[in-house]
Input
Amino acid sequence: MKDVLIQYMKRFSNLSDSELRKLTDNVPVATYRKGTILLHQGEIPDKCYFVLEGCLRQYAVDENGNEHTYNFFTEEQSVTIFNQHTTDKVSKYSLSCLEDCTLVVGDLSTEQESYDMHPVLEVMTRKMIQEDMGAMRDDFSSFISSTPEERYHTLMKKRPDLIDRVPQYQLASYLGIKPESLSRIKKRSAGSSHLRIVY
Output
C-alpha cells in the first residue's frame, strides 16, 4: 500500500526507490471506517493525512445548520487544514470518511522533529504544498468565473470518479448548486452525448 505514497513522493524528489522506502518505513498507516469524522469543525487540527485508499470530504456547517462541501480528497492526495494564520488555530472545516479509508497519518506536533531527522522531507513537503496551493488557486479562479454547467464539465474532465463515489447532494454543494440543478445538468449532458453518437 505504501507504494502509492512512494510513487507520489517521486514527483518531488530525486531519491531512489530504496531511499524512499527507508523514509516511509516508520510512517504510520491507519484504516478508518466509512462515516468516521477525522476532524470536527471548531477543533484544533493535530493531524495531517495522505490518502492511500478511499475518499474524504471537507465541509462546514453554517450558522443556519446548512452543510457546505468544499473539497474531496482521494488516492494520492494530501490533506492538511491550514489554520496557522488564525488567532485561535481552530478549524473552520470538518473532515469525514465517505468510504472505508487507508491513510498515512502525520502528527503536526512532531513535524519539525521529522524534518530535523530527514531534511529532504521538508524540501519535499514544501514542493507538495506549493503544488497544492497552486492547484487550489487555479481551481478557485476557474470556479468563480464559470457557470454551473461548466463546473460540472470541468469535474467530469478532471475528477470523473467522484460522480459515482460521492452522494449527489454533496457533489451539488461542491459545485455550488442545488441537487435538482445537478440532475438537470446531468440529463442535458447525457442528451448531448447521445446526439454526438447519433450524428
Q: What stands out?
A: Residues 149-199 form one domain. Helices lie at 2-10, 17-24, 111-117, 119-144, 148-158, 162-165, 168-175, 179-198.
